[in-house]
Automatic annotation (TrEMBL):
Xref: CDD domains: RHH_NikR_HicB-like
Gene3D superfamilies, alphabetized: Met repressor-like (1.10.1220.10)
Name recorded for this polypeptide: Transcriptional regulator
Species of origin: Azotobacter vinelandii (strain DJ / ATCC BAA-1303)
BP-aspect Gene Ontology terms: regulation of DNA-templated transcription
Lineage start: Bacteria, Pseudomonadati, Pseudomonadota, Gammaproteobacteria, Pseudomonadales
Length: 140
């Protein structure tokens, strides 16, 4: 069974997820000052840079945890053909992804239910609403 695995690095056109954070007015004012002084192009640029710096600081812990917990790091995409091959082999999947896990839109809910035992995603899961609904008790 061949499944595509890609390193997940933000590039033009890549999928991103929107998050919301609450900041104190003093922190926000300091961010705006750095933007105004030209250190960053906008608030988002500063926040992304700060997050990447923190992730780089903890990169070794992330690598060790990913290895220990056997997570796929990056993008894991499951096609209908992938899941049909799993079913034909009489196997079941335990999906563990740090990044983005996606299940193709043409995967019927019955096939997902028959082939996926569990899903643990630290990041984002993209699948049809029907597939997410039948797997709801298997998604952690």
């Amino acid at each position: 069974m061949v499944m595509s695995i890609h390193e997940l690095r933000p590039k033009a056109g890549d999928t991103t997820e929107k998050i919301t954070i609450n900041l104190g007015v003093v922190d926000l004012g300091q961010i705006d000052l750095l933007v105004q002084e030209g250190f960053y192009s906008n608030r988002t640029d500063l926040i992304r840079t700060a997050i990447r710096n923190q992730l780089a600081t903890h990169a070794e812990v992330i690598r060790e945890t990913v290895a220990r917990k056997t997570f796929v790091l990056g993008l894991q995409h499951y096609t209908r053909r992938d899941l049909e091959a799993v079913q034909a082999a009489g196997q079941r999947l335990q999906i563990q992804v740090l990044g983005l896990a996606s299940i193709a839109t043409d995967v019927p809910p019955e096939l997902a239910l028959a082939t996926i035992d569990s899903i643990v995603v630290l990041g984002a899961l993209h699948a049809s609403a029907a597939v997410k609904a039948v797997l709801a008790d298997r998604i952690r």
